[in-house]
Design a protein that fits this description.
Beta-Lactamase; 2 domains; five-stranded antiparallel sheet; Phosphatase 2c, domain 1; 39% helix; 415 residues; alpha+beta; 10 helices
């Protein structure tokens, strides 16, 4: 009768513990609750939880009554046996079992006599960890203790899985907030309006494939009514590319404030990026100086191309004047120039436009870009860029945008 009364009391205690675990959202508190319940229900001296880390296939402890944190491969020791075999492992004499690690007792000064070790699983049978009870106070662990351990481990496994899901959700929410903040910061780096240049119309536009992107454009007002123009594209897209492109923009602005020698600008921006970026990262960039009084655009193109210049029926396709930035330490990138005739348009696009593919894998290419520009020679440039984007979307048959898209168009007005 006494045993039955104790069993009912233990089950009632387990029910209360289950409710407590369900109300806990802090991992340390949850683990401490499970350990305290184990010590109480199994009437043992100590207990330890080893959480399972799937990525490294290891077991590790965050909370252990009277012991330091421990980490080891998930197939080793008595805890490893319980994890591997997914069953309760009862060791009546710890020092007689070759799987027992005596070093922990040496470090803590604790003497382990018996061990009751059981796996913690979620409802799908996935391993969440292992729980060990040490030294039954009344002598030895019995079959009733093993049964209680199974009940306790089932509740604890589900509680740990619930915490993991909540943490995963919270992490996604944190990432979403961080990405939104990064997107806002990157958007603020883009010009809020196009420059007003007598005799010229100029427009820029950007749309990232992700929340943040690896493309940018910029307009920089310089002395003598000249304007710096930047179009750049870092490898990849997302947060990493956004950080690279922000650095490239800042370096270019800083160098143009010091010198208008484009070869020096290319050399120094390249050196810094080469030093800072990993080997698999680089940036294609167009940096130009527009002199509206002389109707001349001086520029260097580090891997950025094709560059398209359309004037009436004439079309000039120009390739890059050098390799991308950050490929080699010392970059030789000669500057070139283009002279605008009345009505001429410079078309600067990142490769996301040209390399958009249709359902058969054919690329949008430069011919379609040129045809749209020539067919809409009187259209305002902001509208023309939107027309280009709409054409790219139709060509891809509504497929998700695969790469960042950025455009800068410069047109000399007719008299």
């Amino acid at each position: 009768m006494a045993d039955q009364t104790q069993q009912i009391a233990n089950l009632q205690r387990l029910l209360a513990i289950t409710r407590q675990m369900a109300a806990t959202t802090d991992l340390t508190q949850l683990l401490q609750t499970i350990i305290e319940a184990t010590v109480e229900v199994l009437a043992c001296e100590r207990a330890t939880i080893f959480l399972y880390e799937k990525k490294t296939d290891e077991l590790y402890s965050l909370v252990a009554t009277g012991a330091e944190s421990i980490r080891f491969p998930a197939d080793q020791g008595i805890a490893g046996a319980a994890a591997r075999e997914r069953r309760v492992v009862h060791v009546p004499d710890a020092y007689a079992d070759p799987r027992f690690n005596r070093e922990i007792d040496k470090k803590t000064g604790f003497r382990t006599r018996q061990l009751l070790t059981f796996p913690l699983e979620n409802l799908e049978g996935e391993l969440m960890g292992v729980l060990q009870a040490l030294n039954k106070r009344s002598g030895a662990f019995a079959l009733e203790d093993e049964e209680m351990a199974r009940i306790l481990s089932a509740q604890a496994g589900v509680a740990l899985h619930r915490y993991a899901l909540l943490e995963e959700y919270a992490e996604k929410q944190r990432m979403a907030r961080d990405l939104e903040l990064a997107r806002k910061i990157q958007t603020q780096l883009l010009p809020d309006r196009s420059p007003s240049i007598e005799g010229y119309e100029i427009a820029g536009w950007n749309r990232s494939a992700d929340e943040t992107g690896g493309d940018c454009y910029d307009f920089i007002e310089l002395a003598d009514k000249r304007h710096g123009i930047l179009l750049a594209d870092a490898t990849g897209h997302g947060i990493g590319a956004a950080l690279v492109i922000a650095q490239c923009r800042s370096l270019t602005r800083a160098m143009l404030s010091l010198t208008e020698d484009l070869s020096r600008v290319a050399l120094h921006v390249n050196r810094v990026l080469s030093h800072d970026l990993m080997d698999d990262r680089f940036v294609t960039a167009f940096v130009g100086l527009l002199d509206a009084q002389r109707h001349r655009l001086d520029y260097f193109s580090a891997g950025q191309g094709p560059l398209l210049f359309v004037s009436g029926d004439r079309v000039e396709r120009r390739t890059a004047s050098g390799i991308p930035l950050a490929v080699v330490d010392d970059l030789e990138c000669d500057s070139e120039h283009y002279e605008f005739e009345p009505g001429a348009t410079a078309i600067l696009l990142t490769d996301g436009f040209f390399e958009t593919a249709n359902v058969t894998g054919d690329l949008f290419g430069d011919e379609r870009v040129i045809e749209i520009v020539r067919s809409n020679a009187q259209m305002p440039l902001d509208t023309l860029i939107q027309t280009l984007h709409d054409a790219v979307q139709r060509y891809s048959d509504g497929a998700k945008q695969a790469d960042d898209l950025t455009a800068v168009l410069i047109r000399r007005k007719r008299a």
